[in-house]
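Subgroup meeting minutes
Present: P.N., E.W., G.H.
Scribe: E.W.

1. P.N. recapped why we're keeping a running log of single-chain structure predictions: easier to compare across weeks, and new members can see raw inputs and outputs side by side.
2. G.H. added today's entry (98 aa).
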Amino acid sequence: MQPDLPSTGLAKLKELAGSNYSYTLIVNGNEVTLRFTPDFPEANSHKPNGEEVEHVMYGTLIDDRVFFSRFVTRSSFGETSTKLEGKDDPVMLWLNFI
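Output recorded in log:
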């Protein structure tokens, strides 16, 4: 049974990370980490204190799909962590567009 969490195919994530230097994909067994550091003009003007912001998504690999359970943002303001709930969690709706 698959969990009720936001998900996407592992192949799509590999393609995204392989074609965009802002993403890093780490697969360790069934644990998946996707890191994203926005690096485009629109994001650069919003960097807190001019420093990088890092978004990290943590998930589990089940049958070639990655189910994300936690979303973390790290910046000069500190770290925030969001537990994702439900496959339509608004934090992860961007997965529908990759």
